[in-house]
Amino acid sequence: MRIAEIHAYHLPITLRRPIRHAxxxxxxxxxxxxxxxLEDGTVGxxxxxxxxxxxxECIEDAFDLFNHSQxxxxxxxxxPDFPSVIECVDRLALASKxxxxxxxxxxxxxxxxxxxxxxxxxxxxxxxxxxxxxxxPSMRSLHHSQASVQYSGAITAESRVREFISxxxxxxxxxxxxxxxxxxxxxxDPPRIKRIRSILGNRVDLRIDANASWTLDQATEQxxxxxxxxxxxxxxPLPHEQAKLLPSLRSRTDIPIMLDESLCSEQDGQEAxxxxxxDLFNIRISKCGGFVRSLKLAILAHRYNLxxxxxxxxxxxxxxxxxxxxxxxxVSGIRYLEGSYDRHLVREQLTHxxxxxxxxxxxxxxxxxxxxxxxxxxKVKRLCTKQQRWTFH
Length: 393
Description:
2 domains; TIM Barrel; Enolase-like, domain 1; 14 strands; single chain
């Protein structure tokens, strides 16, 4: 079977409420949706969420990348089985930029097109994405099938009243883990964390995300103050440009350090390990260039005894939520799990299935082929502000 066409859509996704952290405040998310159609009419869907401050790409870059990436040459072969599809998307390379030394520009675009192909051929070969860890021999050490998973909650930069309500909801709805955004200008984090911990109680696993907002001295001071509140990790305390200072910060605190903005590629991961930058990886499928590349980062972390989180992008729709669910239900050792906020966060649901987590953050395995979802194509067309189509034959 061969790919017949690739169709790209730009969709502005409206959020139910403003989301604010140290690097950005947003009311919308600019998402890239990809539709892949095979010769027999089988359709697959993919999604990427570009972030300029993470991988240096915006939504407009995706269309330029596709036009200069020789997609027909890379994706025009006939695929006899699902492993051959996986090998192809693993090799997929978008047009490079001379100043992209980390090899991360276009990761969201790459993710969207990779997922659409895996979804389409997953349907054709009747294979769910959760089988990838079994299908690829080098990834079988990660395989761990689960019938359900439990997501963690998040508290962003909110008013004191909203913060109280969010904390109380986490407690009432039985979340076992919670992440709090810190480092926002005008917020006094130590009393905030104290209040949140007092509401959540001591049993909830509480971690923080600084979104690259601190200097080394600020991070040292803040983490010393916050340590008594039993913080289990701090995400991206320093900007990526200051990542070389993270070993010094690790020597000054007992709180494990997680990389996020500084972890977007396998090259980033290898550098982090070689330089002793962190204790954990935050793997996000869109940020890291797709499902297969995210699996490789989990393997890398596992090999060197680092922890890893499966994160998500604010504004993901059910397409990326489904990809995250397949990843979470088939990969062992995930320390923290984020995602499937769907109807809690975005106004428009692109999938007929509701991917939103339930009580306590619990959600079941998706058992259908490919991503295991059906996308509302009419809604995609209605929300679309720009589109482009590439035919292969």
